[in-house]
Amino acid sequence: WLGWVMRGPIERIARAQVMTASQVCKDSSGLPLEYRVVGRVPGHVVGSLADTHKPAILYLHGGAFVLPAAPDVHVRMLAKICRELDAVGFMADYRLAPANKFPAALDDCEQAYRALLDLGFSPSRIAIAGESAGGNLTLGVLQRIRKNGLPMPCCAVPISPATEMARLHGLPSRTSKMRRDPLLPVVALSRVAEFYVGAHDANDPELSPLYADLQ
Question: What's this model's pTM, rounded to 2 decimal places?
């Protein structure tokens, strides 16, 4: 389905964005749930951001940099994790391609992390996680945090991350597992460079974390 959306005209992508965002989270694991602006970034908040003594999870959703979070998938999952960890969650609704190219999404994700720090969450109790495009952004945010001298979070969990944006064929695992990876369909990547990367150098480690210095 994602490949079908990505291969379509802009109108199809816009409809898919609105349809995905219009879902309702049917199970928040008993936790409060709201959509609000945190700092300068909107997103879904699970629990209360006033509970700064709790762990905080900054979750960066996937969707090929084009689709927004699906509330009954992404938010439901984040709520379940927050319930199990007694944590507060924030799912940043970062700006999407093709209307917003790199580095708009990464800028928003960095700002979301800064906002959690400004609210009083200790970096030693913040975890950053994300899948697919969100895994790419997770690794990008870590680079931004280091470059800007911010305190590092306690951990980061990139799930099936897109780490090479310049070469569709470039990673052996991308071809050998192209029919097995449930989150990263190769066909959906074929237009990501057009929509998200634009004219930027796709070898930039903030776009392709494979080339980052991870020390």
Answer: 0.94
